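Much of our argument rests on the idea that a fold can be written as discrete symbols. Part of our work consisted of pairing the sequence of a single chain with a tokenised description of its backbone. We regard such an encoding as a compact summary of how the chain folds. The amino acid sequence and the backbone structure tokens for this protein are reproduced below.
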Amino acid sequence: MLASGTRIPVWPNYYEEPSCVIFRLLFKGRQCDERDRTGAMNRELCKSKIHGATVTEANLYYEGSLTLDLDVLEAADLVAYEKIQVLNVNTGSRLETYVIPGERGSGAVHLNGAAARLGAVGDKLILISYARYELSEIAGHEPRVVYLDGNNRVVKGSFRATAF
């Protein structure tokens, strides 16, 4: 029940469903996408993580993305065009892009397009992908963590980190 004098905002976003507006009012501003259409709670967790990737090329005038050796893609359970977060250990910069497959066994880690401005050849990267999980899936969830050597070859593939 709303207190007397409480004003309900007039449709803050024309593209947002009315149920999302009501959800945000009831749940103190949380975004509607935390729940699916049935009302079940979902959380976005780390799905996979690649440690120690070394930038081998930076292509400023290429359409944006990150090219990654197909062996590394498969070890980290990533698919072509999947959204990833790129953390540059050398500069501290972070960006979101998508991954495209590079030649298998090449050790390719290429920053393409605008991302090339946020790193240089030799920089160390951490790559993270996320997925949404229902509450019932969280207790057993373990992200896949892959470690790379200096040549971007998988050292420990499919290493399982514990979520809790």
About this structure: Strands lie at 42-54, 57-59, 65-69, 83-88, 94-102, 109-112, 124-134, 144-148, 154-160. The mean pLDDT is 82.
